[in-house]
From TrEMBL:
Residues 1-20 form the signal peptide. The keyword Disulfide bond applies. This is Chitinase-like protein 2. It comes from the Eukaryota. One of its GO terms (biological process) is carbohydrate metabolic process. Disulfide bonds join 152-162, 262-299. Keywords: Disulfide bond, Signal. Residues 63-289 form the Glycoside hydrolase family 19 catalytic domain. InterPro entries: Glyco_hydro_19, Glyco_hydro_19_cat, Lysozyme-like_dom_sf. One of its GO terms (molecular function) is chitinase activity. It comes from Hibiscus trionum. SUPFAM superfamilies: Lysozyme-like (SSF53955). It holds the Pfam family Glyco_hydro_19.
Amino acid sequence: MESKWLLFSTMAIMLALGNCQESVKPLVKVVKGKKLCDKGWECKGWSKYCCNHTISDYFQTYQFENLFAKRNTPVAHAVGFWDYHSFITAAAQYQPHGFGTTGEKLLNMKEVAAFLGHVGSKTSCGYGVATGGPLAWGLCYNKEMSPSKVYCDDYYKYTYPCTPGVSYHGRGALPIYWNYNYGETGEALKVDLLNHPEYLEDNATLAFQSAIWRWMTPVKKHQPSAHDVFVGNWKPTKNDTLAKRVPGFGTSMNVLYGDQVCGEGDSDSMNNIISHYLYYLDLMGVGREEAGPHDVLTCEEQEPFSVSPSSATSS
């Protein structure tokens, strides 16, 4: 049933994209003095965010192709899997909640570049002398190649028990590891990822959807989401300020990766993510000069939101 629904939704949106070259005019109503809009397939459900530019207004197929130029070359590991329609279909679920639609066009473009910067860095097979440069190889993978373990943590055997014979290695646009993360994500998306983690390597829309859900959702209670710290919805507390956590791209890395990336000084892993973001800003026509000052862009001196238990360290 789930797969049929995803197929139907994808077909409907592809048809809409094919037939609609101009921005859809929103339906508008005012509720308790607040303007709410519905913009059809891409931003549905009477939201203030649907009154703004939607993603397909400013980020189109040719730009996606520019960002991920090498993903379908013969040496890539997910040839034919990732495409623009899968991304925009997944994004449509979250645009009414502010994904790429929170504010003015510039902020929205920067958020899409930021999200895809994370995705590109985590799915890249680029290296220093790769054709087109190391930043042109995002979306090269859709799963971890030759995993060294099955990522089953028995601590969660009562809430997210491991399915016998199933491996919970990295899959998706922001790769998911471990049974508890597959279980939590599956519950949120109403897809049985705990028993069928392979769905993320079979369906690109679902793979993007899981990544956008992670971007929009706090990893832990009493923490902000990557979306909120990036667009400015999050207001740092006194403790955050002491920990040098400020709104912006740097803190989005802190939210998503904690001590795996942040608080480690000028690290290669952090700089790789930042480099993808800056590269995508340039390719989208925004320009890296809009990324902000150094302390907003990095998390090298930030105290991590979370410290990874030894069992939960992802590759």
